[in-house]
Amino acid sequence: MGKPTRRDLLKGTAALGAATLADGALGTSAQARPLVRTRPEQAPSDQAASAPDRHDVLDVAVIGAGVSGAYTAWRLLGQEAERSRALKELRRRRGGPLAVGLFEGSERVGGRLFSVTPPGMPHLHAELGGMRYLTDQPVVAQLVDHLGLPTTRFPVDEPQNLVYLRGHRFTQAQWNDPTVVPYALPAAIRGKTPDDALVSVIERFVPGAATMDHQAWDKIKPTASADGRLLYDIGFWNLLLDTVGQEGWNFLHDGFGYGSVVDNVNSIEAMEASVADFVGSPPPHYRLLVNGYQTMPEELVRRFEAEGGSVHLHHQVRRIDRETVHGEDVLNLALSVWPEGRPLTVRARHVVLAMPQRSIELLDPDTFLFTSDRFLSDLGSIVPRPASKLFLGYDRPWWEDLGLRAGRSVTDLPLRQTYYWGVEGKQPGADPGNRNALLLASYNDLNDVEFWNELLTRPNRLAPVSVTRPPRPMDATASGPLVDEAQRQLRELHGPDARIPEPTSAYFQNWVQDPYGAAYHFWQVGAKSWEVMPRMRRPLPDANLYVCGDAWSTGQGWVYGALTQAELMLEEHFGLPRPPWLPASVYLGP
Predict the structure, then answer these.
(1) Residue 9 placed within a domain
(2) How many CB atoms lie within 10 A of CB 108?
(3) Which residues constitute the domain of residue 533?
(4) What does the pLDDT look like over 327-383, one tens digit per residue?
């Protein structure tokens, strides 16, 4: 795998827009959950850059108010931090409580957790980013319990739900009938569901894979092989094609509803992700946060502020340099404060980049991190993956007329996955007479994202973030042409008996736009994740600069991955003890 240069980083991948401007849009604009506080004018220090005082230096600056940044900031000021020797030394030097600042370039807390409440549905929330967690992800499940956030079951594959592939319509209960499934499959996977077919293929190469936990996977990753080749050096698409043929691969690709699951990424990592996320034994159970997934980072930030932490929205980091202040080595952060783009300098003894790959790439190329060939190689050890979501609100749950109640239907149309999200009147505490209903009309990834992109009508949607323009606001209102096409495909998916009314609200989000760059990431073919993850948590041994988030994790694309990397970083490099709500026996990764 070639090493990217700083010039390569500047080129990047052109960002395709996601937040659309209304063009015949339906209903009102998307309203995110209440923000913590917007304080664009406030900064920890506005002193002249030429004469900083020792007390103008933050102890820790956390960059990015997504879930990993919010978690990191909260833990640094929590009760367990009192037992950290490293943090005690920082407090002694300051002569008082730690000074921790949380900086976010956008107008909101949450990152890729983005919960929108449609009009007329106060108890339903369109999850335009992350939407669920697994009960066997202990860091998430136990944090949710610790924070007291209410949850409910998140159904997925219900027997009565639809499958519409190659123009054939059948139910989830009919996957096992080869006469119904329109694929000429090899005998090894004929009569199996996509889940069962994939796990049977994985177990050819990793016997017992279905019951392995993350610790067991990490033990075999360096040596697991097929035909004399290490699995981490083989693309998963290549491996599947050799094993089940093109027709078998098409069946898996179409039937899962996700192209990323069987794409050409690192085989051993793809196998682990598939087993852990989709096809494990016993199968995992999904949970939904009743008040929206965005409430998790919001609650973390509220608690962080209650402990004396400072939150600075609209503060976008542009460049990071080394500096010496009164004989002490610190890090100098050059920021732009929006909406006016005012330059600001912040100094910190420690800096945590709670940022995805693309956000780091967008830093000034002269940032000292980019002088390290090892860091550039590790930065490029993952590949960005696009995904988008379209939610539609209706004045009634029309899908119930077809016997559909919850979970998803799957299709090879660009919609890919449709989730019957909920009816307002059926939610706890809601007015039972309110029949307004919410549908996740399309959840798609990879090439299907581009289909929907072409129906957007927003100017400059290929333009990257620049130093002269603020980050795009999270306005997820969907355009009329996009909604019209989705309605057409919903009618095709559900058949001639479907009576689908015009939607009352519509929201679309594509996470490829800068500064996010992707909805999630996968490990590159050839990447040794067990070596990269620990290095990324502190990329340069001689700099108090750290990276956390889901991008370089076990559990990419999940809050689980973001939290495990943040917790490992805090334990390893800040000396924080494990919190009492998270047992010491829980394995967090290499």
Answers:
(1) no
(2) 22
(3) 55-110+294-384+519-573
(4) 899 999 999 999 999 999 999 999 999 999 999 999 999 999 999 999 999 999 999
